[in-house]
Amino acid sequence: MLTINNYVKAKSLEEAYELNQARNARIMGGMLWMRLGNARVQTLIDLSDLGLDQIEETAHVFRIGAMCTLRQLELHEGLKVLYGDSIAESVRHIVGVQFRNQATVGGSVYGRFGFSDVLTCLLSLDTFVELYNGGTIRLSEFINRKRDKDILVSIIIRKSNRRLKYDAVRRAKTDFPVLTCAVVAGPVHGKETWYFSVGARPMKAKVLEKKWSIPRDISDGLLMDYAKEAAAGFDYGTNMRGSAEYRRHLAEVLIRRSMHAILMEE
Amino acid sequence: MTVEFVLNGKRVTAEATGDTVLLDVLRNLGCHSVKCGCETTNCGLCTVWVNGKSRLSCSVLALSIEGQEITTLEGVKEKAEEFGSFLAAEGAEQCGFCSPGFIMNVLAMVRELKNPNIEEIKEYLSGNLCRCTGYMGQLRAICKYMEHMKEEVHS
């Protein structure tokens, strides 16, 4: 059971940061996951009055405020123009519209949950997180950091000419995923580069980079070999949703499908 | 502490502590259409609109809605009754416990989506569980209701 003694709607990030330094203080996201846990929170800090609920698009980046909802991510036209339906695909299976109107991108990223579709998807892109005290760092670095008392302000996706495909397997609709997979391809410093992000293994998502130049007319067999090599770069575990062996097999299949879809798009 | 907000068009004040959820406040204010089902954000029974958007009142902290507009089924009575007649005509209600949350989300969908197909309707309503009907009657009711809405606009 969650008990909260004080609820504070912060008037500035500075105030939120100061309040959050207390031992039993917590920052609130959408309150969907935290509410299910057991904790005695002395001060709960709400960032919803700080204007962090916007997705700002510039010529070079998308800046997603930490309090943006998953539904905003799903419907954003700019993200659709650049990445097609892939970002929407990564969130549209998460419970229902009401849930996604409430769950925040910041909560999903800060939580670094093993089951997170959002984390898997964002990790495959050129993504950074802006922390109030810790500056701007790569998302891949952030997710492996020890939790601290900093505040996640925004998520920044650097725009580039990359193609993204997202896929996941669930045993039942709206359930937690058995495996999540995002594949990105595009030129990096003039070289064709592939990024593979696989999550819910059931560990949190991890990203793998491969400098592969793959012809569009590659045979199915050879493409499967590439997919197997990529899938072998991750470790897998067993839980009630699937065995490690099953997850490895799923990863090979999802990676191959996404690579095929990207190659066909070119 | 007290929280002040607009409930179905009227300004109200309620007592709440740090961990009081909106669901409890609404029921205490007499909005008994708002039901507590799973309490794990999965069933959609507690759906209300916060500033016009469907949310799960079982997981909204009451103190966080200071100054905001909350709408429950009681606030959209006429529209709910109109859609309810389509549900009844299709035999889409059995125990009816899920209906208030379901109707709130259907009305939100009708406002948000233009001409949704069956798959889009199913996806939008995937956060509303019904353990009696099997959903087919509800889908028929929604399709007929949307046809009716179109005819009304044309006429």
From TrEMBL, chain A:
InterPro entries: CO_DH_flav_C, CO_DH_flav_C_dom_sf, Diverse_Substr_Oxidored, FAD-bd_PCMH, FAD-bd_PCMH-like_sf, FAD-bd_PCMH_sub2, Mopterin_DH_FAD-bd. One of its GO terms (molecular function) is oxidoreductase activity. Residues 1-162 form the FAD-binding PCMH-type domain. It holds the Pfam family FAD_binding_5. The keyword Flavoprotein applies. PANTHER family: XANTHINE DEHYDROGENASE FAD-BINDING SUBUNIT XDHB-RELATED (PTHR42659:SF9), XANTHINE DEHYDROGENASE SUBUNIT C-RELATED (PTHR42659). This is CO/xanthine dehydrogenase FAD-binding subunit. It comes from Muricomes intestini.
UniProtKB/TrEMBL annotation, chain B:
CDD domains: fer2. Residues 1-76 form the 2Fe-2S ferredoxin-type domain. InterPro entries: 2Fe-2S-bd, 2Fe-2S-bd_dom_sf, 2Fe-2S_ferredoxin-like_sf, 2Fe-2S_ferredoxin-type, Beta-grasp_dom_sf, Diverse_Oxidoreductases. Gene3D superfamilies: 3.10.20.30, [2Fe-2S]-binding domain. One of its GO terms (molecular function) is 2 iron, 2 sulfur cluster binding. Keywords: 2Fe-2S, Iron, Iron-sulfur, Metal-binding, Oxidoreductase. Transmembrane segments: none annotated. This is Carbon-monoxide dehydrogenase small subunit.
